[in-house]
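Example 3.2
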Amino acid sequence: MLLSMTGYGRAEARGESRTLTVEIRSVNHRFGEISIRLPKSLAVLENRVRERIQKEISRGKITCGVVLDGESEELGNLRIDESLASRYVTLFRELKEKLGLPGEIELATLVGLPDVLTWERDELDEESGWRLLEPPLRSALDDLMQMKRREGEILARDLGERIRGIESSVVRIEERVPQVIDAVRRRLRDRLEELLEDQEAEYSRLRLEAEIALFADRSDCTEECVRLRAHCQQFAELIRAGKPVGRKLNFLLQEMNREANTIGSKSLDVDIAREVIGIKEEGERLREQVANIE
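Structure, written as tokens:
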């Protein structure tokens, strides 16, 4: 089944004092582009996250954001350097006695001095971080892929209906071409009988048949119709393929448009021209839909 390039997935992993949230968004893009935002404690996992996403998604602009609530409380500690604080106090007292200054050292002043209070972050090692991140990442991807599949099913039904419409137009064109040639043959013969004398009729008839044969050869679009029908069949098969086919579908649409243009240039018949216009209109609608297919 087809996969849309548009989707959204979200998952959470809750612990005693922290919550890890993963959000993944995917939108249309000609190629595959992945943007990842991780908290500092999990930054070492960026390549793993990218590889995990690439296993599921081959095309589109993907944004993956990870938020770790409570990270500062859980993954870090505030440390007091008592040795440094004691040295500060000793130096202040010596300076006080030397200069004969009054007053005592305030606690607020002491803790505000450089390096008395420091924040020590407990960095997660790569494997521990992956065990924390991988389950919600997998769930968010599953959620995203489910949405992509649902939208892909809707697109597949619409594309299938439009392809069947193009195939019906091809059948009508094939039925109409012999009628056009026969009508031209009748008109030319009727006109010839009005203009030519009896003694020249045989020579003119041979020339007429040659002109009709030349017209029939120039107007014959059987090969184009056969190729156009083959493209439609391949298009329908790719819709049911169940793998990323967006680029192949776009290529087929280009070829289908080429065949339709050739058919239109070969025939001067109004009914055939109308069918060609219909095929090209459906082709443009197909192109708009295919732009959202992975």
